[in-house]
């Protein structure tokens, strides 16, 4: 019996999810909302649906006769979309609002980690601007300032000086650069070491770990410039030891799933802790309640199992019955962004060359749309992600950049050092 799926989201992650779901022999109709030019290749897009509105999503799921709803981004989860669907008997891949609090409140995540014995940096939460500034002074300026709520991956500022810390606090709390998400700030000790992304599927009991990956957040080469949603990714990080990988899986991901379940917040979906390998061992930077973007674009091409079966198993609490297997190849994904991103940028620029990439190289579209004539145009900051797979990381990197150079649009910007040998050797990335 075929399964009709409603997929929520419009980024490169959702294009990658749609691409992988479409490979399942059990997929019926795939509907994406709002979707993008990539998801439109696999089914209808509901581009007018407000996916942050629980009732609207419930009605859309009924309209398309969805047997399963897969929620890509974090905002609908934080607004209780999964809860509303569950209340109507619709199976969901994505955690409840209370379980998703592990991402939408950094204060809650810190409390959970403290109670569960999960290693993380020391931090203090502030709702008062003057108290936050005084604390930053006491830290000598070396700290990380984080908006407490969701900020689309941009609410984190790493500070070297007191002036930088105060500016970050002011931008978040006074200027409301991240809206209400920045009304409270977390000021955290600055950790040092290589970073990696740990992902897992879980139904609240069974945990199926994914390969590790490394994201590159700053907009320019050498990790210069402001943070973005992610400018590129590679998998696996060869510098990560088996011992550290096992510790992260056991002492972070599995421990967090168990702690959430013990508190009555059964977690069903993808859980993604961002990790730093410090001199005193792996520590959590933050938790995310969904697949990363662009990490999903690098991970899903390595999945050899049926993603639809996995999502369905998670939603129905029977993940233990579903195979979850990965290949041993390496993947490298390079994001092409609009000029000016993450600041102001123009859209509507024609995109050429996508049709010229190698057949086995994936171009996952994000901020891209088709105009009335069917021409592919830019429609966002991160426009697309070019992902290549090969037996070695070096080969995958060479193939990714060879294909990136075939694609063009006015103002196109991309980093040239994603998975560069020197960076990989030193564990640089995220």
Number of strands: 23
- What does the average pLDDT come to? 93
Bin the helical content: 25-40%
Structural class: alpha+beta
Question: What does this protein look like?
Answer:
With 430 residues, this protein is of the alpha+beta class. It is built from 13 helices and 23 strands. The chain has a five-stranded parallel beta sheet. Strands 10, 11, 12, 17 and 18 form a five-stranded antiparallel beta sheet that branches. It has a five-stranded antiparallel beta sheet with strand order 13-16-19-23-20. Strand 7 (143-147) and strand 8 form a beta hairpin. The model has no long low-confidence stretch (mean pLDDT 93).
In short:
The chain has helices at 12-21, 54-63, 74-78, 81-87, 97-104, 106-116, 129-138, 162-174, 242-262, 295-299, 307-315, 393-404, 421-425; strands spanning 3-9, 27-34, 44-45, 68-71, 92-93, 123-126, 143-147, 156-159, 185-188, 195-197, 200-202, 207-209, 214-215, 218-220, 224-227, 232-235, 269-278, 281-288, 330-337, 362-365, 368-370, 376-378, 382-390.
């Amino acid at each position: 019996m075929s399964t009709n799926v409603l997929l929520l989201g419009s980024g490169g992650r959702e294009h990658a999810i749609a691409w992988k779901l479409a490979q399942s022999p059990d997929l019926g109709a795939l509907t994406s909302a709002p979707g993008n030019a990539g998801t439109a290749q696999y089914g209808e897009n509901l581009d007018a649906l407000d996916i942050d509105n629980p009732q609207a999503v419930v009605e859309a799921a009924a309209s398309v006769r969805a047997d399963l709803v897969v929620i890509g981004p974090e905002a609908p989860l934080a607004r209780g979309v999964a809860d509303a669907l569950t209340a109507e008997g619709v199976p969901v891949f994505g955690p409840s609002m209370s379980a998703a609090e592990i991402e939408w409140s950094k204060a809650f995540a810190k409390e959970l980690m403290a109670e569960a014995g999960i290693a993380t940096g020391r931090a203090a939460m502030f709702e008062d601007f003057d108290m936050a500034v005084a604390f930053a002074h006491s830290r000598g300026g070396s700290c990380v300032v984080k908006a407490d709520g969701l900020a689309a991956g941009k609410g984190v500022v790493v500070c070297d000086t007191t002036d930088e810390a105060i500016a970050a606090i002011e931008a978040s709390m006074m200027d409301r650069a991240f809206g209400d998400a920045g009304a409270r700030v977390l000021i955290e000790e600055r950790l040092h070491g290589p970073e990696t992304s740990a992902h897992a599927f879980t139904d609240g009991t069974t945990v199926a770990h994914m390969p590790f990956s490394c994201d590159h957040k700053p907009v320019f080469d050498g990790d210069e410039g402001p943070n973005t949603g992610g400018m590129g990714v590679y998998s696996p990080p060869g510098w990560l030891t088996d011992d550290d990988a096992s510790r992260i899986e056991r002492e972070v991901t599995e421990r967090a799933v168990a702690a959430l379940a013990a508190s009555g917040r059964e977690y069903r979906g993808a859980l993604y802790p961002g990790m730093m390998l410090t001199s005193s061992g792996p520590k959590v930077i933050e938790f995310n309640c969904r697949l990363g973007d662009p990490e999903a674009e690098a991970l899903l091409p390595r999945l050899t199992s049926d993603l639809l079966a996995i999502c369905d198993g998670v939603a129905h609490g029977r993940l233990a019955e579903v195979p979850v297997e990965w290949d041993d190849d390496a993947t490298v994904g390079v994001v092409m962004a609009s000029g000016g991103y993450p600041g102001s940028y123009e859209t509507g620029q024609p995109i050429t060359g996508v049709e010229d990439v190698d057949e086995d190289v994936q171009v996952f579209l994000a901020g891209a749309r088709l105009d009335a004539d069917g021409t592919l145009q830019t429609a966002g900051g991160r426009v697309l992600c070019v992902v290549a797979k090969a037996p070695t990381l070096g080969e995958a990197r060479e193939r990714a950049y060879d294909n990136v150079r075939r694609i063009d649009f006015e103002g196109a910007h991309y980093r040239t050092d994603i998975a560069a040998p020197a960076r990989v050797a030193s564990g640089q990335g995220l």
